[in-house]
Design brief:
Blueprint: H1 2-6, H2 11-17, E1 24-28, H3 34-47, E2 56-60, H4 63-76, E3 85-88, H5 89-99, E4 111-113, H6 115-128, H7 138-150, H8 163-182, E5 184-186, H9 187-200, H10 202-211, E6 214-217, H11 225-235, E7 241-245, H12 260-268, E8 273-277, H13 285-295, E9 316-323, H14 324-340, E10 348-352, H15 358-368, E11 372-374, H16 384-397, H17 402-408, H18 418-431, H19 444-464, H20 469-480, H21 482-487, H22 493-513, H23 533-543, E12 557-561, H24 562-565, E13 570-575, H25 586-589, H26 594-606, E14 609-623, E15 626-629, H27 634-637, E16 644-646, E17 687-690, E18 694-702, E19 709-713, E20 719-723, E21 729-731
The chain binds a DNA duplex through helix 5, helix 9, helix 24 and helix 25.
Length: about 725
DNA sequence: TCGGTTCAGAGTATT
DNA sequence: TCTGAACCGA
C-alpha cells in the first residue's frame, strides 16, 4: 500500500516524502511536482502511522491550494479529511481564535474585516479624530498598520523617531482599540492575535505543539515575518517543519513576503535536509533553458537548475511589433492559427505585467470574435449588493459592528442622512457605545428612523434565530428591502441574481463545507462553544472572496497578469509588453532588489509554458494617454540565443512560422507497485537508529530470512539499503 | 439624495 | 487617455 503511494516518485521526491521528522527545506522548482510531494508526504506520514490525521498541520496561502491538497489527499487515503488542519494561514488562525476566543480576548461573534472594510473603518477613525487626510491618507495609514502587524508588532512596539510616524503609531493604537470595541479583526490581526494567543497561554501553546507532530508549509518563500514566527512557535521543540518553496518564484515582497525566511529557516533550525526538486515535468527543454539562463542573472539565490527528460522542443519565439495595437493584432493572428491547428483556447494564456495592458488586447480579441476570460476583478463576496446583505447579517450577529452598521443604516434609503449619522456618532462617542447602542440618543425625525432601523435588526435577529442558514439569508434579503430595492432599479437584474446566488451560497456552505466540519476531530481543542452557522458563514465570506470571474463554461482564451498566472500552466503562453519600464516595471528599479524580483516574475512567466512560448514587445505604446517609445526588455537579451527564434528581423532571420503537431508528454509511467508489510518486526514508516547513519525512516522492506533488506531514509545521510541481518538497527 | 463635474493618479495581490 | 473618488449644485 505504501509502495503504491511512493511509486512513480523520482529520487529527490522520494527522499523528500519519506524524510524523518526533522526540519526540512524542499527547494521545489517550477513544475517539479511540489504539490504531489506535499500531499504524498502527508499521506505517507498517516499511512505509516508516523502521524495521525489530527497530528498534521498543513498550511497554504490560497484557499485554492488548500482545496487541492485536501482533494488529492482524499484520493490517496481512505480517510476523512474532515477535521484535518489543512488550510490557509488565515483560515487556520480563524479556527484557533474561534476555539479560544476568550483567551484571545475576542467576543465569540467576532467578525473579519476584509481589506475594503478595514479601509472604511480607518476612514471613520480619521474623521472621528479630525485627522488631516491630506497628511494622513487612509490608504497610507492602512499600509502602515498592516505592515507593522505583518512584522509582528503592536503599536507600542513600533520604534519611531519622527512626529509623522509617531502620529501613525498613535492612529494604529486608536484603530486597534476601535476594532476591539467593535468586535472585529482584520486579516493581519487574525495572524497576530493567534500568535499572541499561543505565546501568552502556555497550556494552549503546549497543547497544539504536542498535537501537531508534523507541520507542512506550502509556498514557503511567500511567508512574511509574522507567519514565520507563528510557525516557529507552533513547531515547539519538535521542529518538524517541512517547508516547501522556491526562492526563484518569490514575487510577493511588495505584500510583505520575506524570502529571507528560507535562509533563516535553514540556519535557525539547522536544517540538514535541503532537497532540491529540479526535474521538471511541465516544459520542453528550450523553455527551461531560457528560464535557467534568465534566472542565473540574479545574484542572491539558493541555487537550482531545472531539467527535463523530454526533448528540447520548440524554441522560444520572439516578436517585435511597431505598436501595442500591432502587437495585439499579431497576437490575434497567432492565436487563430493555434486554434485552427486544434489547440483549445483554454490552453493558451496571454500574460502581461500590469492590468492596464489587457485593454488593447481585449479590444483586438473582441473584434476578432475570439472568446476570452480576464482574470482578476471583482469577486463574488466583494460585490456591493452582496456586501450590503452581509452587513445586515453581521449586524444580526454582532450589533457593535459599526462598519456594517454604517454600510446599511440608510441602504436602501430610509431617511437617515448625514446629519442624523453625525448626531448618532456624537452620541455614541460621548456614551462610549456602539452606533447601534446609541440609537436611543438621537431625537427628532432622524432619531425615529434610526429607532425603526434598530427595530428592523432586532426583529430580524429574533425572527431568524432558529432558521437554517439559507432561510436566514432569504429573510434578511426580503425584510431589509434590499431585494425590493434592486428589483425596482433599472439595471438591478444582475444584482438581484447575485443576491439570490447568495442564498444558494449559504445553502451550499451548509451542505458541502459543513460549517461544523472544524469541530469533527477537534472537539477537544475547542474550549468554547461552536460558532453559529451564521458566524461561520460570515467568516467564510471574508476569508474566501469567491471566484473572480464567472462563466467558465465555454472554451476561452485566458488573459491574466503574470502574478495571477503563478501556479498555473498552459500549452502555449504569450508574454507581452516586454519593454523596459513596463517589464521590468520602472517603479521596481527604485526598490531594493526590485530588478531581481522582476526577473523572478519573468522566470515565473516563462515556466508557465508547457510546449510553446512567445515573447513580444512593441516599439511604441499608448500609456497614460501619451505615446511612449520603449526599448525591448533586458530580459529578452538575457535568454540564450540557441533557444530563441526571432519572428521579426532582429538578431536572426525572421523566417516563416511553422507549426508542428502537439506532443503531449505524460508523466513517466509509474513502476509496478510491489507489496510488503511487516518484516522481522520492522514496518514501513518506522523510525530506527543506525550506529553510523543515525535516525532514519524505513521506506521499503524486501526479501526474507537472511536476505531481508530495508530501504531507509536517513535524511541528510541519504537513502540506504541495508541487510536487516547485518545492520544493527534499534527502534528509535 | 442624486447626478454631474472636476481632479489626480496610473504596479503586482491573497486573505 | 481613462478611471475612480471627491465635491458641489439642484
Amino acid at each position: 500500500m505504501s509502495d503504491r503511494l511512493l511509486a512513480g516518485l523520482n529520487d529527490q521526491q522520494l527522499a523528500a516524502v519519506t524524510l524523518p521528522a526533522q526540519p526540512a527545506l524542499i527547494l521545489a522548482g517550477a513544475g517539479s511536482g511540489k504539490t504531489r510531494v506535499l500531499t504524498t508526504r502527508i499521506a505517507w506520514l498517516i499511512q505509516t502511522q508516523q502521524a495521525s490525521p489530527q497530528g498534521v498541520l498543513a498550511v497554504t496561502f490560497t484557499n485554492k491550494a488548500a482545496r487541492e491538497m485536501v482533494a488529492r489527499l482524499g484520493a490517496m487515503l481512505p480517510i476523512s479529511t474532515r477535521g484535518m488542519w489543512i488550510g490557509t494561514f488565515h483560515g487556520l488562525c480563524n479556527r484557533l481564535l474561534r476555539a479560544h476566543h476568550r483567551d484571545a480576548g475576542l467576543p465569540q461573534t467576532f467578525q473579519i474585516l476584509d481589506t475594503a472594510d478595514q479601509l472604511s473603518a480607518i476612514k471613520r477613525l480619521l474623521k472621528a479624530h479630525q485627522i488631516d487626510d491630506d497628511k494622513y491618507p487612509a490608504r497610507n495609514v492602512q499600509v502602515f498598520i498592516n505592515g507593522a502587524k505583518e512584522a509582528g508588532l503592536r503599536a507600542g512596539q513600533v520604534e519611531v523617531d519622527d512626529p509623522y510616524h509617531r502620529k501613525l503609531v498613535e492612529l494604529f493604537a486608536l484603530y486597534d482599540a476601535q476594532c476591539q470595541r467593535e468586535g472585529v479583526v482584520d486579516f493581519a490581526e487574525l495572524l497576530l492575535r493567534s500568535y499572541e494567543l499561543l505565546q501568552r497561554h502556555e497550556p494552549i501553546r503546549s497543547h497544539y505543539q504536542e498535537r501537531f507532530s508534523h507541520i507542512l508549509v506550502d509556498e514557503f518563500q511567500d511567508t512574511n515575518r509574522l507567519q514565520y514566527r507563528w510557525l516557529k512557535l507552533l513547531a515547539g521543540d519538535r521542529n518538524a517543519i517541512f517547508a516547501v518553496g522556491d526562492d526563484d518564484q518569490s514575487i510577493y515582497a511588495f505584500r510583505g513576503a520575506h524570502v529571507g525566511n528560507m535562509a533563516d529557516f535553514e540556519r535557525e533550525f539547522r536544517v540538514r535536509n535541503v532537497i532540491r526538486l529540479e526535474q521538471n515535468y511541465r516544459s520542453h527543454g528550450h523553455i527551461l533553458d531560457a528560464a535557467n539562463a534568465l534566472i542565473r542573472h540574479n545574484a542572491r539565490r539558493l541555487g537550482k537548475n531545472l531539467w527535463t527528460s523530454e526533448g528540447s522542443g520548440e524554441p522560444v519565439r520572439v516578436f517585435e511589433a511597431g505598436s501595442d495595437g500591432l502587437e495585439a493584432a499579431w497576437l490575434v493572428d497567432e492565436i487563430k492559427s493555434l486554434v485552427a491547428d486544434g489547440l483549445a483556447r483554454r490552453d493558451i494564456a496571454v500574460l502581461y505585467r500590469s492590468n492596464a495592458q489587457s485593454r488593447v488586447i481585449e479590444h483586438a480579441l473582441f473584434n476578432a470574435g475570439i472568446p476570452y476570460r480576464v482574470y482578476g476583478g471583482l469577486r463574488f463576496f466583494e460585490r456591493a449588493e452582496v456586501k450590503h446583505a452581509l452587513a445586515y447579517l453581521r449586524l444580526i450577529e454582532n450589533p457593535a459592528d459599526d462598519t456594517a452598521f454604517l454600510r446599511v443604516v440608510n441602504f436602501p434609503p430610509r431617511g437617515i442622512g448625514s446629519r442624523t449619522i453625525e448626531q448618532l456618532q456624537e452620541a455614541a462617542r460621548s456614551g462610549g457605545r456602539s452606533l447601534y447602542g446609541a440609537v436611543g440618543g438621537v431625537s427628532g425625525k432622524g432619531g425615529a428612523n434610526l429607532a425603526a432601523f434598530a427595530q428592523l435588526i432586532d426583529g430580524l435577529r429574533l425572527e431568524t434565530a432558529n432558521l437554517p442558514l439559507a432561510a436566514i439569508v432569504e429573510t434578511v434579503l426580503a425584510r431589509s428591502g434590499l431585494l425590493a430595492h434592486y428589483r425596482g432599479e433599472k439595471e438591478g437584474a444582475e444584482r438581484v441574481e447575485n443576491l439570490e446566488e447568495l442564498v444558494n451560497a449559504a445553502a451550499a456552505f451548509v451542505a458541502e463545507e459543513g460549517y461544523a466540519q472544524d469541530a469533527a476531530g477537534t472537539a477537544a481543542d475547542a474550549a468554547s462553544a461552536l460558532p453559529s452557522p451564521l458566524a461561520a458563514f460570515l467568516s467564510h465570506a471574508a476569508l474566501e472572496a469567491g471566484e473572480n470571474q464567472a462563466a467558465e463554461g465555454q472554451d476561452a482564451l485566458q488573459l491574466m497578469t503574470v502574478h495571477s498566472a503563478k501556479g498555473l500552466e498552459f500549452h502555449a503562453v504569450f508574454i507581452t509588453g516586454l519593454e523596459e519600464g513596463l517589464f521590468p516595471h520602472e517603479n521596481s528599479l527604485q526598490e531594493m532588489d526590485g530588478l531581481e524580483e522582476e526577473r523572478r516574475l519573468m522566470y515565473v512567466a516563462i515556466t508557465r509554458a508547457r510546449r510553446r512560448l512567445y515573447l513580444s514587445f512593441a516599439q511604441s505604446r499608448l500609456l497614460h494617454g501619451q505615446t511612449r517609445y520603449g526599448i525591448r526588455s533586458r530580459f529578452i537579451d538575457e535568454l540564450p540565443e540557441g533557444s530563441v527564434r526571432w519572428l521579426t528581423p532582429r538578431l536572426r532571420d525572421g523566417g516563416g512560422l511553422r507549426f508542428g503537431p502537439w506532443h503531449d508528454a505524460s508523466l513517466p509511467a509509474a513502476p509496478a507497485a510491489a507489496t510488503s508489510r511487516e518484516k522481522n518486526g520492522y514496518r514501513i514508516g518506522q523510525t530506527v537508529r543506525h550506529a553510523r547513519f543515525g535516525e532514519g525512516v524505513i521506506i521499503r522492506l524486501e526479501g526474507s530470512g537472511t536476505d531481508a533488506r530495508a530501504k531507509i531514509n536517513f535524511g541528510a545521510q541519504g537513502i540506504k539499503e541495508l541487510l536487516l541481518a547485518v545492520a544493527k538497527l534499534e527502534a528509535a
